[in-house]
Amino acid sequence: MQGANILLEPGVFPRLLQGLWVTVWIAAVSVLLSVPVGLVCGWLMTLRNPVVRVIMRVYLDFIRIMPQLALLFIAYYGIARAWNWNLDATGACVLVFILWGGAELGDLTRGALQSIPEVQHETAYMLGLSNWQAFIHVILPQAVRRLLPGSVNLATRIVKTTSLAVLLGVVEVIKVGQQIIDANRFQYPTGTLWVYGVIFLMYFIVCWPLSLVAHALEKRWAND
Amino acid sequence: MLDWSFIERYAPFFVNGAWMTLFISVFGIALAVITGLICAAVETARIPVLRQAVAVYIEISRNTPLLVQLYFLYFGLPKLGFVWSAEMCAIIGLGFLGGSYMAESMRAGLQAVPQIQRENAYMLGFNRRQTLVHVVIPQAISISTPGIVANIIFLIKESSVVSAIALADVMYMAKDLMGITYDTYESLFMLIVTYLIILLPISILGTWLERRFDYARR
Amino acid sequence: MTETNKPDAHGAPIALSVRDLTKHYADAAHNVFDGISFDVPKGKVLVVVGPSGSGKSTLLRTIAGLEPIQGGTIALNGDVIETGQPGNENSGRVKRGEDLRTKFGMVFQSYDLFPNKDVLGNITMAPMLVQKRKKEEVEREALELLDRVHLADRAHAKPHELSGGQRQRVAICRALILHPEILLLDEITAALDPEMVHEVLEVVVELADAGQTMLIVTHEMSFARAIADRVILLSDGGIAERSDDPETFFTHPKTARAQEFLHSFDFVRHRNAQAERELKAFDDE
Predict the structure, then answer these.
(1) Model's pTM, two decimal places?
(2) Do A160 and B178 count as a contact with CB atoms less than 8 A apart?
(3) What sections of C73-115 are H helices per DSSP?
(4) Cα–chain-centroid distance for residue B166?
(5) CATH number of domain containing A157
(6) Cβ separation of B122 and C112 shorter than 8 Å?
(7) What is the pLDDT of residues A139-192, one digit of tens each?
(8) Which single residue of A121, B183, C73, C258 could bond C253 by disulfide (Cβ 3.0 to 4.6 Å)?
(9) Domain count, chain A
(10) Phi, psi (5° rounding) for residue B85?
(11) Within chain B, which residues score under 70 in pLDDT?
């Protein structure tokens, strides 16, 4: 049990929190930037233009079928080099999470938009609303309700997937943990258990509230 | 352009990697299905205490990343005396992660069987076991199949993370070859192709099953 | 001889006898039924009518054992099979033995065949599993029943390939094959498209002619009038009017409640008749 004392070493806990901050920051930026990308993708997916449809379909299917880790490698080692980008590991992570989050959110948006019955559009038309007014006052409020629970779930998934950043060499919470373990290898041989345990807990503490929110939204709006 | 001779030379590496990915995935998914079945049964039967334990497990499993679960299993637990091989850790990790997803899909399937189907069975004189075996479970399977297939795809994808505990799966091969040969594009190309070969058929099967079983949802 | 199995006025033995039935939901302020009593003689048809929310379906469900009762008794062929217990609102479906359950055949409003079985499988499942009858014999009888409802050629169709009217006819066969003492029909045409109502009701009329005991809840007044041997009007937790003479009930109801209820249907009928006359006059011109 004395391995637990590694957590009480000066600087250890603050450093882990700093690492967690990097994780949360990457996730937050990715989620925020996914939103506009996702809304545009969702709108594109509802278009009837066959070229747009096929492109969006291939994009979504490719993103969905590839492991996120493979996508990270493709972005970091492939795209960055091919286009001569000076993309660091953090940048590659954010890029992948935006492309991935955008595609998934796009599909959610498409589903939400298409789930609104045609009669809602028709009623708005008969009431004399313009297309834009109909979208803002009739369609969007209903779509958002259907969209939000899934989006919060997606955010949880993005936070969890941020853990993969360590495999590209980003210094986030797991990397910090590994550094702490290495530095205290002789003083605390069982420190590994405690440090990874704490990281495990940290992820849970970040993700769990998001899950609860998603669940509450689902329940509240299930019957609308 | 891609260097085809490289691809020819190193294709066997990816075949080996694919076998490792499939090996870990098959056992991990099997463990996940068993775990899911137990959890769904406990939840449906409303067994006290166990039910709360299942709820806690599902929250933990769904709200932590597989990579951290694996590090904990592979590097952390040996300090308590539980020493497992990397393969074992990977399978347990996938099973631990996938169990909650499978449980959710199965429970959703059981709940989606309309109450009136049970009432019909009651009126026809079926006992509890007959109702479950002949009415509820066949319909629940139809309803949960698309979700279970989606979980299978998800778990195979997640299995790419096991490269982080030095298991030579597809991901590991690509990373290794990039390090050794610097032929980045070819390695990435092979990485994509290998995953497509593994996952596309399952994905197509999933879509087909979903369409086929659609009647059960009506 | 107890009160519950006295033959009725015409001498027929009583199949189903309900006495002082009281039904209450846990969260409700009022009882759904406050001690209602009625009999269904063997081979006769009792039709229950009443406004929406009067508890017609609940009545059928309590008799079927799907919901517990809080007072009164239900007797089948003179034997009391259930006695109400106050406070059992949430106890779920009544624990009845398999053979007792199969004595009540039920067809629900929403057509609910088992989607995982074909038509024949739906019909033969219960006799084989519950009554342990032989497959060949059960299948032969199932095909005979299907023939009676004009569906012999659909024996191997899946439920989702059938129309609503066809599904309801299969559901009737599924209930009949168990040879129930009484058939409970809960608004079996309410969810159907109008053009399918007839094909289902026709089957029910044939069953009545063949002497099948039935308890029917329906909104189809002309059907009720044609098929009923007895009628009860359910309203506000009680029986507002009962009649052994359906023709009189539908043409000259005694109580104000029945007049009001039937008037709401008459209004529609008169309007339709008037529209028809006008249309005819227009054609004649």
Answers:
(1) 0.81
(2) no
(3) 98-101
(4) 20
(5) 1.10.3720.10
(6) no
(7) 888 888 889 989 999 999 999 999 999 999 898 899 999 999 888 888 888 888
(8) C258
(9) 1
(10) -70, 165
(11) 1, 214-218
* Distance (Å) from the alpha carbon of B102 to chain C's nearest alpha carbon: 22
Which chain B residues contact residue C159 at CB under 8 A?
Answer: 215
Find out whether B159 and B169 touch, Cβ atoms under 8 Å.
Answer: yes
Using CB atoms, pick whichever of B64, B171, B174 lies closest to residue A203: B64
ipTM: 0.88
Number of other CB atoms surrounding residue C155 within 10 Å:
17
* Contact yes or no for B67 and A167 at CB 8 A: yes
Give residue A123's domain range: 2-221
**Could you tell me if A190 and A135 are in contact, meaning their C-beta atoms sit under 8 angstroms apart?**
no
Count the residues in chain B: 218
Kindly write down the DSSP assignment for every residue of B32-79, as one continuous string: HHHHHHHHHHHHHHT-TTHHHHHHHHHHHHHTS-HHHHHHIIIIIGGG
Q: Which domains does chain C have, with CATH numbers?
A: 3-254 (3.40.50.300)
| CATH for the stretch B12-217 | 1.10.3720.10
The per-residue DSSP string of C203-258 comes to HHHHHHHTT--EEEE-S-HHHHHHH-SEEEEEETTEEEEEES-HHHHHHS-SSHHH
Instruction: Mark out chain A residues that contact chain B at CB-CB < 8 A.
Output: 3, 61, 65-70, 73-74, 77-78, 81-82, 156, 160-164, 166-167, 174, 181, 189-190, 192-197, 199-200, 203-204, 207-208, 211
